[in-house]
Amino acid sequence: MRFVNGAARTQNTRAEQxxxxxxxxxxxxxxxxxxxIGRQLTEKGRTISSQETRASCSITVRNGNTEEISFRVMxxxxxxxxxxxxxxxxxxxxxxxxxxxxxxxRNAADLIPSLSEATPDDIVNAFYKYYAEALGNIG
Length: 139
Prior knowledge:
alpha+beta
């Protein structure tokens, strides 16, 4: 157990370090990716909304009154690193029930990048993979 004195404390806890790393990741990777997605889909008449917290960043796409997809990027702590994790909520095939898919973010080489290795293109590619599935389930 370590003694914690707020005035004398010089080290951040692992949780604080991970949170700071994730906030940088959101600023440099997720926001630019979501901005690109938002521009592209707004041009196609979709309504985009986003939400950001210290633990996740999400984007929701609506076409009129229909929610097409909700896509969220979170962090997942591993023993030696922190990786981006994604969650997509979409309708089941021709149904009214919502299905949730989640897992680690994968890049084009099907590798799981750490927060520092992930790029905006990784986020954009993952989003459009799930978005194409969501559109197939709607129609």
